[in-house]
Amino acid sequence: VFHALEQSLQKMSGRDRYCCLMFDEMSIRENLHFNRSLTAFSTKEEMIVQYLKEVLDACQNAGLKVVATVCDMGANNVKALKLLGAFRRKPSMGIKSWIFLKDGKPPFLHPPPSQNGWLIDITAAQHVWRTLKDLGFEYLHTQNLNQDPLENTFGAIRLNCGSNNNPTGGQFVDALKTSIINGLALQNWGKLIVRMMVLLFWIIYNRF
C-alpha cells in the first residue's frame, strides 16, 4: 500500500503532499480470534500512540507531509494525543468569551463540554492555518477537516461484509483488503484523503 502511495506521490507537486491523518474507531462484533502478536500490548491509548507513530513514519518516508491529525474527542483518543505531547493551547479571548443563551439568558452555570470542544477545534484550525500560511498557502478548506471520508470508508467496509453493520475482526480485515483491491484507496490523487485514513487500519488489522 505504501509502495503504491509513494508511486502516486511522485506525480504530485510538493504542495499537494500536505495532508491530515484521520483516525477513529468502529464497532466490531465479539468473536474468538487469538492473535499472539497482540498479547504484549497494554492500554488502548498506548496502542493508538504506537500505531499512529508507525503510520506517521511510513507516511513521511513515502513523501507525505502530515500537518494535523483528525479524530473525535473520545477519552482514549484524548489520552493518546496527550501521550504524543499534544496539549490545549490558550484560545483567543474572543472565542473564550462566547456563551450559550436560552430565552436571552445563559442556561448553564458552567460551560458545557461541547463548548470546550469548539474551543479546541477552532484553536487547532487557527494553528493549522498559520502553519500552512507560513508555507505559502493562500487558503484552507476547513470543511475538509472532518471525519466524513473516514465514515464513508467504514460504510464501504460494511457494504463488503454484506451490509453487516457489526462485522467481526476477521470480516473487517477481509472487507478492508477487498476495498483496497477494488480501488478505494488507489485511484487518482484526488482520493488521497481517503487513502490516508485507510493506511492506519491497514497497519493495525494486517497483523491478524
Percent of residues in β-strands = 5-15%
Give the end-to-end Cα distance, rounded to a whole number of Å: 17 Å
Query: Would you list the SSEs in sequence order as H and E?
Result: HEHEHHHHHH
**Biggest beta-sheet profile:** 2 strands, parallel
| Domains, number | 1
Q: Given the helix and strand composition, which structural class is it?
A: mainly alpha
Shape: globular
The number of helical segments is 8
The side-by-side strand order for the widest beta sheet comes to 1-2
Estimate the helix proportion, in percent. Answer: 40-55%
Mean pLDDT: 73
Residue runs with pLDDT of under 50 for 5 or more positions = none
Determine Rg (CA atoms, Å).
19 Å
Number of strands: 2
Can you put this structure into words, describing what you see?
The protein is mainly alpha-helical. The chain has one domain (2-32, 40-94, 112-205). It has helices at 2-9, 44-62, 75-83, 93-96, 113-134, 148-160, 169-181, 192-205; strands at residues 18-22, 65-70. A two-stranded parallel sheet has the order 1-2.
Give a short summary of the structure.
The protein has eight helices and two strands; from the N terminus they run αβαβαααααα. The protein has 208 residues and is mostly helical.
List descriptors.
single chain, 208 residues, mainly alpha, 2 strands, 49% helix, 5% strand, TNP-like_RNaseH_N, TNP-like_RNaseH_C
Please describe the topology of this protein:
Layout: H1 2-9, E1 18-22, H2 44-62, E2 65-70, H3 75-83, H4 93-96, H5 113-134, H6 148-160, H7 169-181, H8 192-205
Parallel strand pairs: 1-2
